[in-house]
């Protein structure tokens, strides 16, 4: 659930305060807590094909702790677009960003990396780009209201592209969009960069009883918008449901790393988004020239638990499956640039000369997409809404390291 602030870009989380700490958990207990996600995403099979080597995932967030033992050696600290929001001498907390980075590219630690957090793409690299503050930071309200921070997300996207990112993870959300953000997203896609963003945690807020609010940057065309599922693999009640949602991923009781070699568990579309960004990294590592549209198509075509009729506004085309997405990407790798419209080359038949021809970009429910397009167009002219770190609840599962998990 996103906390809303004043006109400029800010960061906010509902229930972001850490709950009382549980007894210190061993790192192998942490890995055990990841087993449901590893199984749901079919990662063991996917890792036989790709582990993300050579791919850089930019994490546009609150900053990443490069010294966490499950991330050390994999993180490059990039530009801080929030500089000046906190009082002088105050270090960023980097909780949310470290959490998301670990779900994407955590490599564990200990013998064989068998302890701690293993990310979806454990051999990928992370570029940390700080564009939000965690809400307990003293500069949070300054950041949320100062005009000079208005377009930090747009600037962060362009910076990440120019720094060589292959995938951009945006586990962030706000209610309104800007032309600068739309232009930055267009720039990223033109450079072949896959953008993944959270659908938002306002699933209990209905607009005219028909859908939950659209969140940005997830609702921009060309961005992979991710919803969250619960432990029964149904839409989590907090997850936004509207026609921007492309796919879903687990988003409840998700184990991740926190600054200072800590581990946390939480829920939200933030976590689901990070998992999907990891799958995009697996695909880009195996098929580096696959366009963003085809990466999105591979993930949606490979989804499991598909809703009746093939699509709904809660979980999109279904729950992502890494192994199936890689298989679908392999089928698409020979195709040329994608084309839209009803009369495009049949994907099953090669074009003249034996090369695969263009294929149709995935379409969703026409009426809902038309409505969404109108909303998106209007939103670009509106004032900027508050940007939020989106996960509903998080709690610490360990404080200090123990001899058993060193």
Automatic annotation (TrEMBL):
Entry keyword set: Hydrolase, Protease, Serine protease
Protein's organism: Nonomuraea phyllanthi
Protein name per the record: S8 family serine peptidase
Active site: 61, 96, 270
Family indicated by similarity: Belongs to the peptidase S8 family.
Pfam family, one: Peptidase_S8
Domain Peptidase S8/S53, first and last residues per copy: 52-318
One annotated GO biological process: proteolysis
One GO MF term attached to the UniProt entry: serine-type endopeptidase activity
Superkingdom of origin: Bacteria
InterPro entries according to UniProt: Peptidase_S8/S53_dom (IPR000209), Peptidase_S8/S53_dom_sf (IPR036852), Peptidase_S8_Asp-AS (IPR023827), Peptidase_S8_subtilisin-like (IPR050131), Peptidase_S8_subtilisin-rel (IPR015500)
